[in-house]
Every structure is written in structure tokens, then in C-alpha cells.
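Batch job 17 of 40 flagged for manual review because the log was empty.
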Amino acid sequence: MTIPVNKSGDGTQDQAGPEPVRASNGGNANTEPFVRIENLSKQFDGVTVVDGVDLDISQGELFAILGGSGCGKTTLLRMLAGFETPSAGRILIDGIDMSGLAPYQRPVNMMVQSYAVFPHMTVENNVAYGLRKEGIDKARIGEQVAQILSLVQLSGYEKRKPHQLSGGQLQRVALARALVKKPKVLLLDEPLAALDKKLRQRTQFELMNIQHELGITFVVVTHDQEEAMNLATRIAVMDEGKFVQMGTPTHVYESPSNRFVADFFGTMNMFEGNVTAITNQYLLIDTVDIGVIKAPPTPGVHAGSKVWLAVRPEKIAISKEPISSEFTTSIKGVVTDLGYYGNRTIYRVATNTSNVIEISAQNQFRASVPTLDSSDEVFISWELTNSIVLKE
């Protein structure tokens, strides 16, 4: 069984509310934000795409904006870059108001999803293009290009054309071209979406190392929850043009602020119910699908409140024997489906009310056959502190 996260040291799981939108990196309130967005909005033909967004990003932070298609995240990034003009609000970078400044006048660079490298140019010419447009001395261009290609591990590829490169190498060329001008802020729009899964995972660590070495502020837009969690120091979850929660990856994953975040950010089992009683140690929630469940006390929840009880699949244990404890929920069911993923197995278990609960079990030991199979009767259980109570 997964051990619940305990940051308070008193044996209970933290049930923190959403972190403040204007929390700076590391929580240092005395540090002036390097990027400040104030009441930023954008409408297209009367349709609001970005709706009154406020955001502070600290210098050297790797910040991710996470959301589904059409939520406004790319439009927000394009306003930071200067490619779109806000309908209202303003953007400040390093204390300077960006209003009225063209993209080339801003201390930012942007790496787009398609990479947009010049197919007729070599790697070194692609990377040097922006420096040459600025009229920088040829010797300095050569030094800077060599340094950045070494940083992105492309030394020796200077004379190759884009068609001679792999997807991962093209991604590095685009990154090198964006970094060689040493912007104060680098904007990345779905930077790894074109890569296969294994290469994407490896490139995430490389991107983190490059950002740490250069100390440049990165703002990444992505729809991939795992990518956002792996890359970012903080994440803002966006929906319908607004930020619905902001915080560290751990905070957003373990303490979602509402049903949308809980359902969008990872996988979640959710059960509708009403709070029937409250003690100092737990809530009693009468759920529609699985009966009365104990859950941790939650601020703002009272007897009679309609709530949703949520629990992550990896927080649930599955076995053929019941687990009996005052602070453990145990439910009998039947395995209807299972998926073997090597490092873990996903089980779908139907309860006696036909409700289906998903469980993610780590495969800690080698086995030639699964320990559980379809149609097996099982017991699933989770500790009280692994339940999340959502008011909406």
C-alpha cells in the first residue's frame, strides 16, 4: 500500500487549500517577480480566450502552464512574446512594461511546437541566424554558436542539414537557436510534443539541466500532465481562459482544488456523496456508489454538505484478503479488466453497485503470470488520509 504523504509530522496528511496565485518561486514574498502578468485578457471576435489572468514568475524559474486544447494557454504565451496584443491588462518583464513593444524589442525568445528550422540551412547557420540579423561580429557568432551547440550536445553536427537529423536533434537545434541570443525569458509551446515517449522523457531531463545551467526563466505551455510535473518548479492549471489552480507539482497533484483539476491532473476515482457527521478525526460521507466512507476533516465542509470524495488509483491496495481498520476503507469487488504495463498493473474493479474503481498496483516482484486475473473476487482498500474531499 502506498504510504500517505505527511508533511506536518503529526501523523496526518496535509490537506492544504490552493496555493496563492501570486506565490513566488520558493515562497519568498520579498522577491520581486521577474515576469508579472496583471489582469490580462484577450478576446477574438467577442469571444474571451484569456480572462483576467494574474501571474508572477520568479527569475530562473521553470514554470509550466497546463491545460487542454482551447483553454487559452498558447494565446497567453503569444501575448508574452508580443505576437498578440492584449485586450486588457499588462505584462512586465524585469520591471519593464511590455505594452507597445514589438516581439523583436522584448527580452524573450519563443520555441514553437513545429521547431520551424530553415530546411536549406545547416545546423550552425540555423543557430547563427538571429545573431547575424543583429549584425554581431563573425568571430563572436562562431564562439556563441559553438558554446550553445556544445550545451545541447550537438557538437559535430554543425554542417548537417535538417533532413539529416532525428526528431530529437531537430528539437535541440530549435532550442539552441532560441537560447543563443541569451533571452531573459524563453517561451516554449509544446516543446516535446513531436518526440516519441522514451525520447520525450529523456529530453525533459536534458531541458531541465540546460535551464539550470543557464539560469534563464523558462515558461512552458503543455497539455501533458506528466511533462508539466517532471519539468516545472510550479504549475498553473488553465481552463476556459482562467487559472483554476497554481502550485508545485506535488501540491496540485495531491491537493487539487476542485473536480476539474482532480480529473484533469492525472487519474482520479470520484464518488458523489453527502457529509452525514463530523468528528475530530474524520468526516462520514454517505456516497451514492460505495456507501459510507471516512475521510479527513476538510476546511469549509460541514454536516449536510454535498461533496465529492476522490482517491488516486495508486493510493488503493488490492488483495484477496480484506483489511480491517478504523481508518481504512475496504470494499469487496470483482476484477473486470486489467492492463499489464511492466512496472505496474492497472485493475478495474466493479463493486456490488456496479461502480467501477481503478487501481494502479506496482509490480515489485518478477512473475510469469499475474497474481490476480479477470473475474477474481478481491478487496480494495485505502487509508483515510488518502481520500481527498472536494466541494465542487
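Reviewer: the log was empty due to a logging misconfiguration, but the result itself is present. The domain at 25-262 is CATH 3.40.50.300 (Rossmann fold). Unflagging and moving on to job 18.
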